[in-house]
Design brief:
Elements: E1 4-6, E2 13-15, E3 17-20, H1 31-43, E4 48-50, H2 59-68, E5 77-82, H3 98-112, E6 117-122, H4 131-143, E7 147-152, H5 157-169, E8 174-177, H6 192-198, E9 202-205, H7 236-240, H8 246-253, H9 256-262, H10 266-275, E10 280-285, H11 290-296, H12 306-316
Helix pairs in contact: 1-2, 1-11, 3-4, 4-5, 5-6
Length: 335
């Protein structure tokens, strides 16, 4: 069964492997398969689920709500997000204005079929809205009982600090950040992680397998397998393209003997690597087939020795991205 961790310094416990339905529900897989994946996650002990209003333009929330219908609500931890354009994508259908946040939480709850979410997250930082307005809206969402906790996603260290200061003044706290993080993408380590840790915020990280590249299924000099994310024209191919270089793929193949020696698959090694870090509250893992989840949750509770962690660093070498400037939100909101 999947282990639990505290979400930052809060009292909320979440499963260290959390099910995320970005790029799958309502988009890459049929609803029946998506529901099967959610039920498999529950059977494996996962009780934390992450989604967002923008995923499949609100459809992902509907599918997750349908899949969880009939479950004991108190036994689940449900996360969703607000910022990106939704609906007809009008001028107020995007960002972190009071209008969009208040309408956004109501829409998410309606689609999920729930009275509240456990964690409501600012999906990016909004340069077009005063931070005070955003934080006041989140404070009111919490006071209304529509969200129990508030988090952010892909905010810089400076933005996190400013947001936490305002949140504290308004009677709540930011408890989490949701950044990209993997053995290949470590841009949060230099600034975001120390600031978050100081402020009591945990990291719920997305793409712990670097869009699937760390699974080892993509080979240098060869076409990607049919049906893989690298062939998906709905968005997956674009996201993974930065990793589809021969130097990266060659380095990743050097992880296979390390995984074999540890008795792990390469996906399990990638997830276990993320979970070794104390600042991690959870790794988000999606699935297009239930059997993927069955294998991936075996990374929960795995302890990698210092020698294994060092071997991973040596294998990946200088293909690892560490530039802290790559933590950023769009300067101009999409319209």
């Amino acid at each position: 069964m999947v282990a639990y961790r505290h979400l930052g310094s809060s009292g909320l416990k979440i499963t260290e492997i959390t099910y995320g339905n970005w790029l799958t529900h309502g988009s890459q897989v049929e609803a029946d398969t998506a529901i099967d994946c959610v039920h498999t996650a529950l059977d494996l002990g996962i009780t934390s689920f992450d989604t967002a209003d923008v995923y499949a333009n609100t459809v992902a929330e509907e599918v997750l709500g349908q899949a969880l219908k009939g479950q004991r609500r108190e036994s689940l931890e449900i996360f969703t997000k607000v910022y990106w354009p939704v609906g007809p994508k009008g001028p107020n259908d995007v960002g972190l204005s009071r209008k969009h946040i208040m309408e956004g939480i109501d829409g998410s709850l309606r689609r999920l079929g729930m009275d509240y979410v456990d964690l409501y997250q600012a999906h990016r930082y909004d340069y077009a809205t005063p931070l005070e307005e955003t934080m006041q809206a989140f404070a009111d969402v919490v006071r209304a009982g529509k969200a129990l906790y508030i988090g952010v996603s892909e905010w810089t260290a400076e933005q996190i600090r400013a947001g936490q200061e305002l949140a504290t003044q308004m009677g709540f706290r930011l408890v989490s950040n949701q950044p990209q993080y993997s053995a290949l993408w470590r841009v949060i380590e230099d600034k975001v992680v120390p600031t978050s840790t100081e402020l009591g915020m945990g990291q719920i990280v997305w793409s712990p397998m670097a869009e699937g590249v760390l699974s080892g299924k993509y080979l240098p000099g060869q076409q990607p397998p049919a049906g893989s994310r690298a062939t998906d024209e709905k968005g997956g191919k674009e996201m993974i393209s930065r990793w589809m270089r021969d130097d990266v793929l060659t380095a990743v193949q050097q992880l296979k003997p390390i995984a074999d020696d540890a008795g792990l698959s390469m996906p399990q090694l990638a997830i276990a690597w993320v979970l070794q870090h104390a600042f991690i509250s959870a790794a988000l893992v999606g699935a297009s087939r239930p059997e993927q989840l069955v294998e991936n949750v075996k990374a929960s509770g795995v302890k990698l020795g210092d020698d294994v962690m060092a071997a991973i660093d040596a294998a990946l070498g200088d293909v690892v991205e560490r530039d802290p400037a790559l933590t950023r939100s769009p300067e101009q909101r999409p319209a």
